[in-house]
Design a protein that fits this description.
CATH architecture of the largest domain: Sandwich
Oligomer: single chain
Shape: rod-shaped
Order of helices and strands: EEHEEEEEEEEEEEEEEEEEEE
Structural class: mainly beta
CATH topology of the largest domain: Jelly Rolls
Helix content: under 10%
Number of helices: 1
Distance between the termini: 91 Å
Strand content: over 45%
CATH class of the largest domain: Mainly Beta
Length: 281
């Protein structure tokens, strides 16, 4: 008897008599039936898998190539790993919760109530920094998300000096602002004018009038200072010198680097008084 090439099933030779055809067909059929017996059985959802390296040696098994849908119990459930190659269900949280990393949780993550940004400002230059005797003074502010500055009793040796802040000592046209400028008069009172700065080279927060005896006070708040985005700021300042300027304004600095330093500058002459307090959060 001849045999098939791959599985060795018996088939009639070309010279066999026709009367032996039925027996030959039964022999071939039984061989095929025996070879494919592993294809019998199995249940819904199972897949056929190799049981060994032997030809046609199969077994029915659960589908290990994907995660069964029965792992989910409710709308919003998600899958997370509890260990290598181990999937687990994480039940949906409650309305308003956010997914948070937590190494103590079984899956390494959990649903938790979102915590809002609640800045805790700390004075980063202990006791404040004197401006006297220098035209520029630099204070390091690396790693702060928000910065709040108080400038107290600031003056310059020269009249008509303006006081500026440079972010990262940047003097390019990345500063813009708008608001009101308050100008002190020779008699009691102030005049206010709308003002705007576009593509300016600094944050201008106050200015002396024609005499150097005037002094300025102010507060400046900067946001987003530890990011690559635009840094908004607001200014509230006052000048006591004749024709001196104070500002009530807001603006933005468009530099793409996080803020690492602030330079406090007098445009004319050295500062001859004043203290700067820098708070960060």
């Amino acid at each position: 008897m001849a045999t098939t090439t791959n599985f060795g099933w018996e088939t009639p030779d070309d010279t066999d008599l026709v009367k032996d055809g039925a027996a030959a067909m039964r022999t071939l059929g039984n061989s095929i039936d025996t070879s494919f017996v592993d294809l019998k059985g199995g249940t819904t959802g199972q897949v056929l898998a190799k049981a060994s390296n032997t030809d046609l040696d199969f077994t029915w098994a659960a589908d290990a190539s994907g995660i069964p849908t029965t792992i989910f119990d409710a709308k919003g459930d998600i899958i997370a790993a509890t260990a290598a190659d181990t999937a687990s269900r994480l039940a949906v949280g409650t309305n308003g919760q956010v997914l948070t990393a937590d190494s103590t949780a079984a899956t390494g993550i959990k649903w938790a109530t979102a915590s809002g940004w609640n800045p805790n400002f700390q004075l980063i230059n202990a006791g404040g920094t004197s401006l006297s005797g220098s035209q520029t003074i630099t204070i390091n502010v690396s790693g702060l998300n928000e910065i709040f500055i108080i400038l107290d009793n600031v003056s310059s040796a020269n009249g008509n000096a303006f006081f500026q802040i440079l972010v990262n000592n940047d003097t390019t046209t990345k500063y813009s602002g708008y608001g009101l400028a308050w100008q002190a008069k020779t008699t009691w009172g102030y005049s206010a004018v709308a003002t705007g700065f576009n593509a300016d080279t600094s944050i201008q927060w106050a200015g002396l009038g024609s005499v150097s005896s005037g002094t300025c006070w102010g507060s400046i708040h900067l946001w987003g200072t530890n990011s690559a985005g635009t840094k908004p700021y607001s200014i509230n300042s006052y000048s006591s010198g004749t024709d001196g300027y104070g500002y009530l304004s807001s603006g933005n600095y468009t530099g793409t680097s996080a803020v690492t330093s602030l330079v406090f500058k007098s445009t004319s002459g050295n500062h001859d008084s004043g203290t700067v307090y820098v708070y960060g959060a």
